[in-house]
Structures are given as structure tokens and as C-alpha cells.
Amino acid sequence: MQDAVVAVSTLDGTHKETVQQVDVAVVGAGFAGLYLLYRLRKAGFTTVTLEEADDVGGTWYWNRYPGARCDIQTIDYGFTFDPELEGAWRWSEKYATQPEILRYLGFVADRYDLRRDIRFRTKVTAAIWDQAKQRWLLATDNGASVSCRHYIMATGCLSSPKPPEIDGVKNFKGEVYFTGRWPHEEVKLAGKRVAVIGTGSSGIQSIPLIAEQAAELAVFQRTPNFALPAHNGPVPGDRKALLDNDRTGYREQARWSLAGVPYPQQTVVSWQLSDAERRERFEKAWDAGDLVYILTQLWADQAVDVDGNALLAELFRDKIRAAVKDPETAEALTPYDHPFGAKRPCLDTNYYATFNRPNVTLVNLRQEPIEAITTSGIKTGKRTFDVDVIVFATGFDAMTGAIMAVHPITGRGGKSLSEVWANGPQTYLGLTVAGFPNLFMITGPGSPSVLSNMAVSIEQHVDWVVDRLTAMREAGFATIEATEAAQAGWARHMADCSMLTLHRLANTWYTGANVPGKAQGVMPYTGGVGPYRSICNEVVDRGMLGFMLSGPSVAEQCNDGEIVRLQPDVRLVLNMLAEMKLPPIESFGFQGARDFVAQFNASRPAGRPVGEIVDGSLPGPDGALSYRLYRPATPGPHPIVVYFHGGGWVLGDEQSDDPFCRDMCRRTGMIFVSVGYRHAPEYRFPAAAEDGYAATRWIAEHTAELGGQPGPVLVAGWSAGGNIAAVTCQLARDRGGPKIAGQLLVCPVTDCRFDRPSYNDNAAGYFLTRSLMYWFWDLYCSPADRTDPRVSPLRGKLAGLPPAFVVTCEFDPLRDEGNAYAEALTAAGVPVEQLQARGHFHSSFTMVDMVITSVSGRVQMAEALRRFAGLPPQATGGDEARRGQLASHKLAAAAG
Ligand code: N01
Q1: Strands (E), 236-351
Q2: For ligand 1, is residue 501 a contact (CB within 6 Å)?
């Protein structure tokens, strides 16, 4: 390489040495490091890349074990920054082998003459931030130290193999190999007795090939994994045609997709499909041999819901049972302990069939754990295996290992990164760390990285970082650092995102569980590649929100704040609505608004099945009122909840809140009767209130007829329906019944005052707007009537009301009046439980299966209703029980 400017300086203050001075130093010459070098050089920064290996390749340099291949299709797994490069390289297979990928990276390095700025065989041994000089000083084990303005870790997520953690490895007299550090020279296994420990991707790829060579192979499996046959071959014609027809569109779709591969988002949910339809979809995915396809394209709830996931996992298990002849071995190879996709599934060639070979033995470590490695082999609790070779396919200290463990990194004020991360990685955007100015991580913890097509995520990070450095230079800034508040906000957002998928329900390297003693929490960003990209862009658009910038001759800039305060799925829903650029709902007129809401609701996922749904009518104060009854599938009789839908006394019907009623019926195990009360402006105040009361009275008097449990009923409602439920409780108390056992008020309207802060804070942008509320009030109730407790229950007498569960949402104009009602009830001696939902909006809880993060809130509501009804806590399905564990989610705790 050509030396950049070389100067004499002091590194540790005790001795003089030669220091290489550059604008930017990069560690690692894999995919990320190569692209960084290309972009930094193009942007005019002096740069050096430090690389421990003697050539480029990163993970593809080290992982040379038999069978090593990529498991993202090659047409998706490569650089896209230069169309000419794309045209100049042709992959030979659907999934390239490690040697071919290494050749590709060498080809890229040659094409852009990158090697001249890479110092090979050079390890960074320490990195220290010099606050006075505002530069990083890097000590190396080979040649000059480096002084750089910016320090970028392109160290990869899976590059620091973890130690074997098994006693006696050093005693073993045979050969020992690690898949993550496989020798360059040929490893001869023919005729030998081989042990492979570990059945993750590396083990599953190598085991079939090792079995073909070895005289005997013993596979030591601790946790079985799901493996999909790759069906490797030529690049599939359909995908290639898509790419060739519109390369730019294809790549752009990948950048905004969830996983970095251009597949659409599924909308059909598992319960809309028959068994045969689900199997057909599964078989198609099985034949496609594509992990991203099977992870995302079967049904919409497969990755977010335990039940939807279990259907897929069971189909997968059938395949394993069919492939392995010995039933005991098949059972041992079948995973039950994690949802499909929560642990990284593998792509294989002949993996399961390998266990039908006479020379292969599966050792189930759950039944006979390894006790020690001896001089001659491996001793388990039951037997001893004498072997010539042990292959450790035991994985990596993922995501943080290469950044933290490789060398000490000391930031501002002597802060050590290892100490700052002792309880789990804390980052802003997975790119930067507060207290470590000018330090960047490419695909660091807190970014989508390993949950995505790495090629796409690497390009996004490199582009973002280099664009920022360029903009800083232009503005005269020399340092950039994340603020503590921004970082804490990101940790909260990460924890919120971890509710979206099932990754939190498995012990994996994604959560740090594979390394003894490592802090645990979901490390990659689970909110998706496209949403993440939009957040990074938004940080820039909002003036580098969450960053401090300083420079020698410009005023310091600190734009402190949290980039995402909404729940991740709420953000997606609101962005989607914003993109639709809809006129205000009230501008449609009341009939147009009703049509619009009906159309909007038709695009929702279908509600989940319940035992029975019956439509009927009941006598109201001024004619019949319709109702819809939801009966649980469990044996009755069940307590009855009288439910009032939302819609500002103007919109909505039994259908509009259908998914919510189904969901609550399932979760409570209680009958929900959704009442079709009269609407304004045709029927103004107090029609809705009187209908609500009359319907509740009639239902309470006809519980047996409705198949319900005799005794008090409960009431519930959302928004204006919450208003009607609250009013009904007051009327029932004052008019001699019926007896009501409890009230669930979800984002209720409780008062006619519009000067509480939430009316201003959330006046627009959160679907329910202030002006829409004004419109509802005007249509329903004359100003003279508005202080009547039958529309402003907060103004009524509150003592003696049934116990209440009051839900309010942070980004809702109605938040403060809901909170005021809860406080006033409490002051009046009514038992009140409250859920103040952070990051949620007015519709969060009724958008069932669209706002996944609202599930835990509905669980709490259901438990409250059961308590009010005197029922024991529901023995809910696994997901809810496990969702409870989230309280102990370590990253969330750290954020708190
Ligand atoms: O590592 P792993 P990997 N005693 O951690 C077991 C990527 N990758 O190198 O599950 C006994 O997945 C451990 O058991 P358990 C890909 O993202 C991609 O295979 O912890 N067993 C597990 O079975 C992948 O996910 C490709 O109970 C021990 C195995 O070792 C990631 O790299 C190819 C043990 C480790 O599996 C890591 O894959 C290869 C012990 N002490 C890898 N310690 C592509 O195709 C660990 N295990 C692109």
C-alpha cells in the first residue's frame, strides 16, 4: 500500500513513534470495508483500512469450511452501487460457494484498486479518543499506529468465534478445527473418525460433506434447528427476469423491503386460509428453497404471532420426520423449543438425509451432555466417542464480539466501550455510541444487520456515514456524537420493536444467549430494513436529530431529541395514512365519512374466529336496535360484556369494531354484545346515551336468552363508545339498575372541554384530529347540552360507580380527559386501573393485527374484565404468557 501522510507523534505520551495520519480509518476489508474504502476515497477523504487477514473478504476469508455458501440468493447478495460492476460479474449458481464469493470480493478490490489503501495482517490493539486533538489514535500489532479523525468499525457481525466452553479441549491429541477459522490448506478427513459439535448454519452446511469423507461422523447437537433445502442450481429464471426487466426498481424495492430482498408484504392471515391452502403455500416455499421467502411469504402472522407461527413450524416438522428414517433420530432433530425464524433457520443440502447414512450418529446433548474432551475424544454423560478430528461449529460472539472484544476502545473522558456495554450494547441507530465521538459501526447492534440481506444493509450504512462525513466537512464540523437522550430513546424503540416479532422468544445469538455471561436482549433491529432506512433519513431531515456536532470555527450544534416516539407499527400506519394524503374525514360530510370508514375497515386483516357470531335486534327507547353477539368457543354460560363502538357518535357500527370484539371475546372468554346505537346528526344527544343505557338494561334482563351467565353485566367501549359506556354506568346507578360489574373505557370521550394539553399536542397527524372531534361534537350535541353528564360524564357524580379500567394513549387528543376521568373516579372512591399507553394513538387498540404492539394492552384489558367478572386469570396461549417475560427484557430495562 502507499503510505498516507506519516508524521511523528506521541501515542501514549511515553515514547515517540511513527503515526499514520488519515481522515478516516476503517477496520475490516470485507463487504463493508471495501465499499467504505471506495466511497471514502471518492468523497476525497484520506483513508486506511486495517485488516487482520492477508487478503480481502472478511467473513468470507475466514469461513472456508466444507460446504460454506451464502444463503441469500446471489442475485440479491452483492454490491449495487455501480451498475457497471453488476454487469461485469456473473454468479454461477443460485447460492454461491465461499470460494466464488471470495473471488467476487477480490474482483471488486481489483476493479477499484482498493488494496493499495489496505494494511493487511494488521490488527488494531487499542483505540483511544484524544479529546484535545479530536482524533482517534489506533495502536496496531504491525507497523505504524494510526491517527484518524473518524474511526469506522466494518468488523462484521459474525467474525469473532466464541471459545469452545468445554473442558479438556487442550488435552485432545487429535486435530481440532473451527468452522469460523478453517485452514487455507486442504483438510483431509477421508477415513477418519470425526466429531462435529454444533448444528447451526455452519454445522448444517458442513455435516453432509464431512459425512461423505469421514469413516465415521458423530454430530453433537445441543439444540435442533429448522433447515430448508437450498435446491441449489442455476439462478432461478423468475427472479432473474424480475431483475433484468427493471434492475433499478428491483434494487429499490429491496432497499425499502422488510428483509432487504424484494418480496411484497403478505396481507392474508393464517386463519383466512384452509389447511390445504396453507400446506400448498408451504410446499411452494419448500420447493423454492429460499429462506427469505419461507420466512416472510406464507401468511402475514407467521412471524408476529405464536399461533400463526406454530402452523408453519408443524408443517416443517412433518418434513423432518419424513426425511429421517429412524424415528428416534428424527425426533431428536425436530425443533420444539423456539418459533420458526426466532432462531436463525438454515439452508441445507442433504442435511436430514445425512442421518440415514450408516456412518453418521446423532448425539443428543439434551439427553447426554458433554462432560469433557479427553485425549482421545469426547465423553458424554452416557458414553465415550474416540475420534481423530473435532470440528467446532459452535458459532460466534455475535454483533458485539468483533467490536468490543477485539481491542479496547476508549472514548471521551476515558470511557471504556466494554464497560458502557456491560449490560448490553447501547447505540444510537446501531451506528454510533454516546461518549464515543466520531466512532461509527457498520451494521452494528441496534440496526437490522443480521436480520436482513447484509449486502443491502451494508450499502445503506456506508452511504449514510460517508454522506454525513461529507456534509460535516462542508459545514466545518470536526466531531459528531450521539446524545444520551437520543441513545436512550433508541433503546426504548428497540425494545418496542422487539415486540413485533418472535425473536425475543428464543435463546439465540441474536439475544446474546449463546455466550455464557453475555447480557441478553434482542440485539438486531427488528423493525425492518425499509422502516429503518426511513428513520435514518429522518434523522438527517430533522437536522441531525440526536447528535452533537462541533468544529474548530463553527458554533456547536446539539439537536437533542428522540427520533421515534411512536410505537413502530403505529409509525408505519400513520406514515401510510400520511402518504395517502387524504382530505380531512369531516370534509366528506357525514355520509361520505361513513363510506370512507367502511372502505378503510374493509382493507384490515379479517378478525380472528370465535365460537359463534349472532346478529340480532333488541328494543331501544325509540325502536329496535341491532346488535352483534360474539360467543367464545369455550363451554358457557359466559359473563356478558355490552360493547359500544367508536366513531364520534356519528360513524361506525357493529362491523367497524368487529376485530376488536372478536379479539376481546377470545381473550376474556366472555360474550361481547356490540350494540348498534343511533347516530348523529340524524339522532342527536341524548339518543346514543339513552340507547346505550336501554340496550344494557335489556341485555342484563335477557342474559339467559343470549346464552350468558346470569348476574351483573359489564360494559366496554372505545372512544365515543367509551363515553357511552361511562354514561351507562352513571345512569344504571341512578335509575335503579341494571347491576354493572365493571367498565372498560378505551380512549373515552369524557368531557366537553377542549383546552387540555393533549388537544393541542395531538391536534393533527394522529388520525383522530382536534377538528374532527369538534365536528363530532357539533353533529351530536348543542353547546347548551354539553355539560350534561350524559355526554360529559366527568361532570357527573362519580361515587358508587363500578370498578373501571381506563385506557389512554400518548398521541391522542382525548388522552388528558381520559386521564382526568380516571383521576376523578379514583378521588370518588371508585377502584380504577389505568393503562397509559406510550407511543400509541387513538386507534392503536382497535387496529387488531395491524398494531401488533397493542396486544399486551388488550391482554391487560381482558384480565381486568375477568377480574371484574370474578373469573380467575385466563390461562392464555403461550404467546401472552411469554409476552409477560418482556418486562424482563434487558435492553428495555437498560433503556428505562
Ligand atoms: O453458529 P450458531 P454458526 N456445546 O451459533 C452449538 C451465519 N452463517 O456458525 O443452539 C455444544 O448458529 C449451538 O447450540 P445452541 C448465520 O447467520 C451464515 O453455525 O446454542 N454445542 C449451535 O447448534 C448463522 O446463524 C451462513 O444450543 C454448542 C451451534 O453450536 C450464523 O452465521 C453460514 C456449544 C452454533 O450455531 C452463525 O452460524 C454459516 C457448546 N458449548 C453461518 N456452543 C450462510 O449460509 C455452541 N453450540 C451465509
Answers
A1: 346-348
A2: no
